[in-house]
Design goal:
391 residues, alpha/beta, 2 domains, 10-stranded mixed sheet, 6-stranded parallel sheet, 12 helices
Length: 391
């Protein structure tokens, strides 16, 4: 029977449901046996679909039973229901929450214009939430979702999957141990493809800003220049994109963040630089070397020590940070979900927490505000609304 024995996280079903104050209670069937935790999946085929495998995050986990899927598209709903081996599908996620009362929900659609409403609905129904990134569209939406989760003692995690990848955690430890000396600067580049500018800023930049904070703490301020047609953006330049992540603007973005201890960070997205800036990701520049993180579902990290190619006769030599991790390809969703479930059991915050997700949104919108106001903008933002206008 589901729910018996050890789960993949290494704790028993009884230990999982025994946690107090986090919204999970043991339930029993007619025979007095513990039943599995009820889980559900929400997506929207054709509008963000199910993100990066968000419909699969509960598959194969003992102690968890996927009871329903919600998707307004009949074909998409049927596909996921067949994959999960479940009988019940709903066109409206609200009906699903009311009738099924799941304790765990994976909210999969990439279209962030749906995220705040759906996350709030799940939390109010008493479910812990694992949410596709980007978290929401604006700081005021983030504030509302975080307040609801806190009020109800529920755990909210956002799928910034790189944060818990083994090679990224190894990089954090190596920087703390002084591998490249004193960290002085972080240089981040978006994908700079057809999405270059505002779309790249929210879709890929959110990952990079999350990693900046992971390595160097909260930013203190930002200055920025966001350009369209050779001039700085105005409100009327706002637009919506295919994966609706809220208002975006600009085809060129350059931002400069100030962190504590004199650490500076930049973010660039400009399609004219794609060929020279290389793979999207971050370079961490220290007093004795450089670490380069190439972003992806499974990121790679390389290190170069000492002077670069500008020294006559000396070649740049990039080596994997940890050869044992160089070719590892874990399921990108497994680590964040493991950590989210463990946070429910223990009562701590998830590593990929809603608070961390909210900071990425704050950094993105701080860039817009700094550019449009032509000044350095301090964090946290005082005006919590989207600077490009109402959602």
């Amino acid at each position: 029977m589901k729910g018996k024995g050890q789960g993949r996280e290494g704790w028993t079903r009884r230990e999982f449901v025994a946690v107090g104050g986090v919204g999970l209670l043991a339930s029993t069937n007619a025979f007095g046996q513990e039943t599995a935790l009820r889980a559900a999946v929400i997506g929207h085929t054709g509008r963000g679909d199910y993100g990066h495998g968000m419909e699969r995050v509960f598959r194969g986990r003992s102690g968890i039973e996927v009871v329903a899927v919600a998707d307004p598209d009949e074909a998409g709903r049927g596909r996921v229901a067949r994959f999960q081996g479940i009988a019940r599908g709903y066109a409206d996620w609200r009906d699903m929450l009311e009738k099924e009362r799941p304790q765990l929900v994976s909210v999969g659609m990439r279209h962030a214009d749906q995220h705040a409403e759906v996350a709030l609905g799940c939390l109010r129904a008493g479910a812990h939430v694992y949410l596709e990134k980007p978290f929401v569209r604006s700081p005021d939406e983030a504030d509302a979702v975080l307040a609801e989760a806190s009020k109800r003692g529920l755990k909210l995690a956002v799928a910034h999957t790189m944060r818990v990848m083994p090679v990224v955690k190894r990089l954090k430890g190596a920087l703390a141990e002084g591998l490249i000396g004193e960290l002085r600067e972080m240089r981040a580049y978006g994908k700079q493809d057809a999405r270059a500018g505002g779309e790249d800023l929210m879709v890929l930049g959110s990952h990079l800003f999350d990693l900046m904070r992971m390595m160097s703490g909260d930013p203190e301020w930002v200055t920025a220049r966001v350009m369209t047609g050779g001039r700085e953006i105005r409100v009327e330049d706002r637009r919506l994109v295919k994966d609706n992540v809220g208002w975006v603007a600009g085809e060129q973005v350059f931002a400069h963040f100030g962190f504590a201890n004199g650490v500076n960070a930049t973010f660039t997205s400009d399609s004219g630089l794609k060929e020279v800036s290389g793979h999207w990701g971050i370079e961490f520049l220290g007093s004795r070397g450089v670490a380069r993180l190439n972003g992806d579902l499974v990121p790679r990290v390389s290190v170069r020590m000492g002077a670069g190619g500008w020294v006559p006769g000396k070649k740049e030599e990039w080596k994997p940070l940890d050869p044992a991790l160089a070719d590892s390809a874990p399921d990108p969703q497994a680590g964040p979900v493991d950590d989210w479930l463990e946070s429910i059991r223990t009562g701590r915050e998830p590593e990929c927490s809603g608070r961390n997700g909210a900071w990425t949104v704050e950094m993105v919108l701080g860039i817009y505000r700094a550019s449009m106001e032509g000044r350095r903008v301090a964090f946290p933002l005082v005006d919590r609304r989207h600077p490009l206008g109402p959602a």
